[in-house]
Design a protein that fits this description.
This protein is mainly beta. The chain has a domain of about 90 residues: Beta Complex (Metal Binding Protein, Guanine Nucleotide Exchange Factor, Chain A). Helices cover about 5% and strands about 45% of the residues. The protein has one helix and ten strands; from the N terminus they run βββαβββββββ. The longest helix has 7 residues. It is globular, with a radius of gyration of 15 Å.
């Protein structure tokens, strides 16, 4: 059986990557950091094993920012697109930002997290589980 591969990239295409295998346990994070880093009500994130994440193109524009101790957010220094994150305490995984994936990516959202700190103007209109903090 052939394992599915999903492609992703930043807005300008200077950074491209693939994820082999399924995209599971997608969560929408409403925390202050994700909201500000993405300029939106939440960030759609998928934690994938690092050995399934492969860089296809890196034109040297990738930058990172330590948004909290031991957590780095990676983004394109040319177009600003957030592409993934790494956490020191979970170094064998990469947190992919689903907005960077191709439209055809097969992923299912399973929950909203950090809704205890969501923006007052953000309303959740689905029946997915909502967790006040991470889950």
């Amino acid at each position: 059986m052939v394992e599915a591969t999903t492609s992703g990239r930043c807005l300008c295409g200077a950074f491209r990557f693939t994820v082999a295998g399924p995209l599971e346990n997608v969560r929408l994070c409403h925390c202050d950091l994700c909201r500000r880093a993405n300029g939106s009500a939440f960030s759609a994130n998928c934690r994938v094993p690092a050995d399934r994440f492969a860089v296809v193109r890196d034109e040297g524009t990738l930058r990172n920012f330590e948004s909290s101790p031991g957590a780095r957010r990676y983004f394109c220094g040319t177009c600003g697109s957030p592409v993934f994150a790494r956490v020191d305490g979970d170094s064998d995984h990469v947190r992919v930002r689903l907005g960077t994936l191709d439209r055809e990516a097969a992923a299912e959202i399973v929950a909203h997290v950090w809704v205890g700190s969501k923006a007052s103007w953000d309303s959740i209109a689905d029946d997915l589980p909502c967790h006040p903090q991470g889950a």
